[in-house]
UniProtKB/TrEMBL annotation:
This is FERM domain-containing protein. The keyword ATP-binding applies. Keywords: ATP-binding, Nucleotide-binding. GO terms for molecular function: 4 iron, 4 sulfur cluster binding; ATP binding. It comes from Entomoneis paludosa. One of its GO terms (biological process) is iron-sulfur cluster assembly. The keyword Repeat does not apply. Transmembrane segments: none annotated. Residues 192-247 form the FERM domain.
Length: 247
């Protein structure tokens, strides 16, 4: 299934007992033993015509079970993003997952604390499940793992129920924190992936283009690459320029 340029595959699409529309008439749980889980994971990953991808994101179940081990055996993962809630029990399980991926040579790029807080009508932040557990998850002997906190959000829930992702719906009000956090998480993951592949060095400069260097066409932002290159050439320092194209 492809939606808004994102290709998606789920076990529910091919499991006749999942109850997902189009997969079959039956409805029930997918009950599988360890060896079968490994085979199913391998088939979904390597038996699917993904086409040309920029990145493959795997949404894994919680824990440190057969699915996680099978994925690490079948693929050379670039990194993992750990998702937890503020409760101490969830934090303990998340730390175990981080330790498992670390032992398998998969770095943790970021930690996400979901349902971290809510904002009341007066504008104040409240933490119903407590604070301080994030530090336990992100602490590392060499350097802290980047982290973000997502609020308890009606806007995110409404987007899930409607089937339109929040980043596409972009409601005019009530979702600024959520959208900004998604943007921050995307920047963190992109930066950490670059560090994994090209070395753990801090960038000396960031290059951004202004609105005068770009134009708006059919909802897509276009900019003059030559202008960016001319601006970059004014500096004598080394730089890396990454260009992306849909063609």
């Amino acid at each position: 299934i492809e939606h808004e340029g994102v290709r998606l595959l789920s076990l529910g699409f091919v499991n006749t007992h999942s109850g997902v529309q189009g997969s079959g008439e039956n409805n029930g749980a997918a009950i599988m033993r360890g060896p079968l889980v490994v085979k199913v994971v391998a088939q979904l990953l390597k038996g699917t015509d993904w086409g040309e991808l920029d990145v493959l994101i795997l949404d894994l179940p919680p824990g440190t079970g057969d699915v996680q081990l099978a994925v690490c055996q079948e693929l050379a993962l670039s990194g993992a993003v750990a998702v937890s809630t503020p409760s101490k029990l969830a934090t303990v399980d998340t730390k175990k997952g981080i330790e498992m991926f670390t032992s398998l040579g998969v770095p943790t790029l970021a930690v996400v604390e979901n349902m971290s807080y809510f904002v009341c009508e007066g504008g104040g932040k409240h933490y119903p499940f407590g604070k301080g557990t994030m530090q336990d998850m992100t602490a590392n002997s060499s350097k802290p793992t980047p982290s973000v906190q997502f609020p308890i959000s009606m806007a995110a829930n409404d987007a899930t129920e409607s089937g339109e992702p929040l980043c596409l719906a972009r409601p005019a009000t009530g979702a600024d924190d959520e959208l900004n956090t998604f943007q921050e998480l995307g920047k963190i993951v992109s930066r950490e992936l670059l560090r994994v592949h090209y070395g753990d060095t801090e960038p000396e400069h960031q290059v951004q283009y202004s609105s005068k260097d770009s134009s708006q066409t059919d909802g897509e932002e276009l900019f003059d690459v030559a202008t960016l290159q001319l601006n970059l050439e004014k500096s004598t320092n080394q730089f890396t320029l990454r260009l992306f194209s849909s063609s």
